[in-house]
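User: Show me an example of a complex going from sequences to structure tokens.

Assistant: Sure. Here are the input components:
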Amino acid sequence: MDFDKSYSFNLCFDELNLTKDIIAESIGYPNGTIPHSVIDIIEHQILKAKSFCSIKAGYLVCMNYTFSYSKDKFTLNGKTFNTGKIIGSQLKNSENVILFAASAGNYFEVESKKEFDCGNSLEGLIIDTIGSELVEKAGAWIEQKLRDFFTNEGINLTNRYSPGYCDWNVEEQFKLFSFLPNNFCEISLTETAMMIPLKSISGVMGYGKNVKNTEYPCNACGMEYCYKRKVTSKEIK
Amino acid sequence: MNDLFENLAICIEKGKIDINSKHPAELTGQPGVVEYTKLALEQNINVNTILQKGLIVGMQRIGERFSKGTAYIPDLMISSKAMNEASKLLKPYFDRGEAQIKGKFIIGTVQGDHHDIGKNIIKMALEGNGYQVIDLGTNITTEKFAQTYKENIGTPIGMSALLTTTMQNMEKSVKTLKEQFPEIKIFVGGAPVTEAFSNKIGADGYYPSPYELINAMEK
């Protein structure tokens, strides 16, 4: 792997291990409570997505870029990312960072809208959820690939952290993408820093010999209805 | 007749559309809300009575189960779809003024934001509960909200934002609309939106689930 060079990959649906159980849980059904008719819809929509969606993922491992961090920000080649304290604390001891992005393409937003417009809201929700889970799986795929590589070198990685979460303003996405080639993973940004296609993710991971990989610090974040939340709002209060 | 109303309510609660519907498994081969609504109309039962004693009872039951955590968003969608099928049969009566909608609701995702799944879920729940929803879509400017409100004075507005950047546009829209129309009611929602943010920008409410919004509207 060359450092300071961006890589992007076309991913195959099947290697991401997206199952109907993941979608069932994500749309709200506790284990084993989902009706058969809903399972049928999920299976059908997974098959369709498998045929039509286009999944891309990539990263840039920064090595020779100047890097420094403090408790609520880090600076990369002179550009300061105001991550906030939650992410700042997770990047502690990082020697540098990895920038990443992934996209599941625009199939999901187009098809979901079509179904909602036809009154098939459940199908619309399921398609949207498959897109969300798929792009997260693509993010996890990148993380695992990097983790496998760095572990062999005796280097640890943090979790993935994204603008828009953990109090990191989504507007900082402009800075993040300024380090990546134009149209990286076929993602573009609107003037409000929204990624197009909508089913896209981006973010940062810290790496270094003394980096600690800890649980996502959800109890420190005020985003009560974040879909990544690992604790209940009751636990926070 | 009470059996008929109860069957209507059960079909709505369980999302049984018609005799051919596979969902729910335990009602396979049995009539659905379409057949029972047709039967009620054939018996010349007043449309408002069909709604109040049958269809809306079913929606209330699924809403209560959702509030208690024993039903989920997809269950609401399944019930709402059944309700929409019944509503299609009742539409001529609404058009002739023989039945009334509960009210209207304007909904849209704020300027700069193209996310619409949350907005669509709210729309589905409101329509299923007897409201007419004016869906403006996504990336909606303050001017578009204002123009639609002018054409529908007194209709509450629901605004959605999924990004911290577009929450700023939500704030601007709420402020401008409140200045132009001091009586306007604006509800806000979206993953990063909180009750504190709603209070800060002067909106009239933030409800994390569709049924909390509906309950608030019906108070």
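The lines above are the inputs; the final block is the predicted structure for all two components together. Chain A is about 35% helix and 20% strand.
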